[in-house]
Amino acid sequence: MEAQEEAGLIALAEILLNKISGFFDVDDAVKATFAEICDDLQEFEAGTVIVPQGGDYGDVYLLERGWVMRSRHMENGARQIVNVVLPGDFVAMNALLFARSDFELSCKTDVSAYRLPSEKLGNALTRNAMLSAALFWVNAHEESLLAERIVSLGRRSARQRTAHVLCELVARLQITGVQSIEQLMLPISQEEFSDILGISIVHMNKTLRAFERDNILSFRNSILVIQNKGRLELEAGFDKGYIQFTRRNDRNSWRPNYLEIG
Amino acid sequence: MEAQEEAGLIALAEILLNKISGFFDVDDAVKATFAEICDDLQEFEAGTVIVPQGGDYGDVYLLERGWVMRSRHMENGARQIVNVVLPGDFVAMNALLFARSDFELSCKTDVSAYRLPSEKLGNALTRNAMLSAALFWVNAHEESLLAERIVSLGRRSARQRTAHVLCELVARLQITGVQSIEQLMLPISQEEFSDILGISIVHMNKTLRAFERDNILSFRNSILVIQNKGRLELEAGFDKGYIQFTRRNDRNSWRPNYLEIG
DNA sequence: CGCAAATTTGAACCAGCTCAACCGTAGTGG
DNA sequence: CCACTACGGTTGAGCTGGTTCAAATTTGCG
After folding, report:
1. Number of structural domains chain A divides into
2. Exposure pattern of A126-142 as b/e (b: 16+ CB <10 Å)?
3. Which of A200, A47, A33, A158 is nearest to A109 (CA)?
4. Would you tell me which residues 2-31 of chain A have a C-beta closer than 8 angstroms to some C-beta of chain B?
5. Is A137 on the interface with B (CB under 8 A)?
6. Which residues contact B238 (CB under 8 A, 6 or more apart)?
């Protein structure tokens, strides 16, 4: 293994493994498993469409660096961004099961991602219960992000949605080990932001300006500065519980078994 | 095994196994696996709260009969129903991983469900790759329902959302082997319907009346009659692809392996 | 029958949308 | 070095899909 790939693996361990370490016991065997699977680090330029809407899935990827968007383009030209894929998340996990994608997967930034050929990943899953557990966990994690987004889109105002999604992104980026929390780079335009929240770009702008006037946050030139985190979380009704799970402790008799390396 | 439980198992086989049979080869070994796990059929009365919002998870259930709602109650009294759990779906799958629930799980009708103790299910997952694959599949299935709901809430009008969710429910109920498609029992009030769609109850009513005036559908006394399915799907922009998946065929070398009974 | 819950309808209102014009900044090419 | 262009952001004005409020009607059920 080359030095660069090894460095990549370390980065990986510090993101995905960090993410799941609050839940699993991440030991050397686990790391070895990931090392075995993640041996093909690929680079994509910003703007690359990994899977086009309606196109065939290729392989699964584990994102190491950069932002990937999963979005739906509507008949009338509108767009809805369904989720933001951050380092440590899997891209196109559905490729394991489905032929076609109903969504577009595109790179918002330059991206590094480990390519996990479906066949190889499938085989690894057969042999390694730990890996299955990790996938299960990651699935559940993403599912709770989507559930929370549904709550936002269904029952929160534009201002609350904005606050909530920003709280969520900050919390998720923290897990990826970002430098500063007060000052963050969010590589998205206001238009993309509005497509995450399901509002118009004009209203997006006015909402952001209002937050700025209230000295809660500023978002300019892709730089997010949060001046009043407490107020932001309060308005969002944000509870980070769904991002940093509480592991259940009452029934752990099965877990060591489940997590055995097969 | 008692006769009633055996009958239940057959029903189960005809729902969950039916659901996944388009994807997996469901043979006797697979059925035996489920028979082993699903030996505790429980009954809940309509209105029962299986898991309260903010409460501790208990066990996982596999729904055999009835409707279960997963919903969030907001501070201001509003509610968002995140998903509708139908026969063949799992209830509270997150119980395997998380201590607390951010949502309420409640029975809309009388319900029969197989209780799957976390410990037992976890153990079974360790030993049986087929079961893991099935869970993975079911997770992915639910994830695509949530993704599609996000698209609806973000970028479709109330009328389109209504049409879309009805198309989705009909397609899902078809899989569960419902009798008639033209005339369906939907055990939800207009208020609950509006909480699925993220609109007000008043507008829900007006939208339904409009569909009735247009001779597209009627929904009265919990009976849904679809008079013009084509028009409904057209307005919804509905494509059932995300419910009845196309199994991928290009890389099936790993699957037989993955699906081996461990 | 009679109560409680669900539905229906109209009227006023408003959060967020569309349209349209303008601004700032980063290329780009002459 | 400037002119031109393109793209994202900003702002105001008017509009509308959907909300809220309120009251009447129907339905389910003991």
Report:
1. 1
2. bebbbbbbbbbbbbbbb
3. A47
4. 23
5. yes
6. B163, B164, B167, B168, B232
- For residue A195, the enclosing domain spans 3-260
Q: Which is it for strands A223-226 and A217-220: parallel, antiparallel or unpaired?
A: antiparallel
Distance A226 CA to C23 C1' (A): 26
Q: Cα(A253)–Cα(B14) distance, rounded to whole angstroms?
A: 32
| Residue B262 with chain A: CB contacts under 8 Å | 126
Count Cα atoms within 13 angstroms, Cβ side, for A60: 21
Please give the protein residue whose CA is closest to the C1' of the nucleotide D28.
B221
Strand extents, DSSP E, B171-251 = 183-185, 217-220, 223-226
CA distances from B11 to A37, A93, A109, B32, B87 (A): 40, 31, 49, 14, 10
Spatial CA neighbour of B58 closest among B44, B79, B73, B77: B44
Angstrom distance (rounded) from CA A34 to CA A12: 9
Cβ of B202 less than 7 A from strand C:
yes
B76: burial class by Cβ within 10 Å (0-12, 13-18, 19+)? exposed
Q: Render pLDDT for B118-166 as a digit per residue (tens, 0 to 9).
A: 888 888 887 777 788 888 888 899 999 999 999 999 999 999 999 999 9
CATH number of the CATH domain containing A126: 2.60.120.10
A191 inside 8 A of chain B by CB? no
- Cβ–Cβ < 8 Å for B71, B18: no
Cα A84 to Cα A148: distance, rounded to the nearest angstrom: 13
Nucleotide nearest to B76 (CA to C1'): D20
Distance of CA B149 to the CA centre of its chain: 13
Question: Which among B107, B227, B72 is positioned nearest to B163, based on CA atoms?
Answer: B227
Q: What is the pLDDT of residues A180-231, one digit of tens each?
A: 778 999 999 999 999 999 999 999 999 999 999 999 999 999 999 999 999 9
For the stretch B8-41, pLDDT in tens is 445 555 688 877 777 777 778 777 878 888 889 9
Is there a contact between B126 and A82 if contact means CB atoms under 8 Å apart?
Answer: no
Q: If you measure CA to CA, which chain B residue comes closest to A244?
A: B98
CB contact under 8 A, A132 and B147: no
Pairwise CA distance, residues B62 & B42, whole Å: 10
Q: Provide the CA B206 to C1' D21 distance, Å, integer.
A: 16
Contacts of A133 in chain B (CB under 8 A): 125
